[in-house]
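ok here's the first one, seq then struct tokens
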Amino acid sequence: MAFKFFKKIKVESKNLISYLALLISIGTFFLLVYEINLTRKQQYTSVLPYLEIQNRSPSGDEYAFVVVNNGIGPAFIKEVNVDYNGKIYKGDLYDFFEGYISKNDTIDVNYLYSSALNTGRLIPAGKYVTLLGISGSEKDANQLKNWLTNDNLDVSIVFSSVYGETWIVNKNDGVRKL
């Protein structure tokens, strides 16, 4: 028995079944590729970090300048820079403060605390790192807050995701992709 398509093509029933099986296989292949692409996008977005620089003042005699990972994946620290009066200093904010500022300032360094934020450090999702904090002196807490919120100072942190995408977060400009 033969079927006529468009009155010119003759296809036998056994060949028609073969063609339909081939068409279904090709459709299944494209559907599989589409699903793999969706799964890849889901995995990609499930590990995105999002760093923010924040000021925290839980009480009058305490102040902390922190980096928070508000993303859903870990942030790998690639580089930390401090820009003070137009000059760039590489490294942690505490080291910068101790080396350049504390000599010319009246903040009592005995009240300071910090967590080192160096290249290679990982900040897990939902966690924070204290770049520089102070507790125990309201005068020193206010002075440190004024110094860290000054427009002459900017802290920039270059970080990446598990997939190697890189961003930079600045105190003054926020986050942007590199």
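and now the second one, same deal
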Amino acid sequence: MKTIINATETPFATAPRQEVLARLLSVITESLDEDKAENVVVLDLTGRAGFADRMVIATGISERQISAMAQHLERRLKEESLARPKVEGDQGSDWVLMDAGDVVVHLFMPESRELYALERMWGGDFDVAEEVSVDETEQ
């Protein structure tokens, strides 16, 4: 099950960018689903970050599962000629980061996902700031 919050260079240079992004996300989420990733969330970063348009966050139950998910995903993206992701932390870590160009993927152990709380940092309330008038701060 995946949740989408807020709704690169590829060989598909003639394809519209949104189609390529949709295909990239489809391959990523399908791969994670096949590997039994839990709590898959897709965050829309359009207009919020310059490093990617989407962020995918998923949980694995062991470091071994997280490493396998990263390896399978990397292989699928290369096979589909969608991306050659840069991978950090795939050698036995509680957090693996994959940069697939327009999409970054974070694979976490449950404790690390809770600790770093990327959904809260990049989720729906990211642009909302509390307004405080000068008069209120002086009292």
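notes on #2: The longest strand covers residues 38-44. The chain is about 35% helix and 20% strand.
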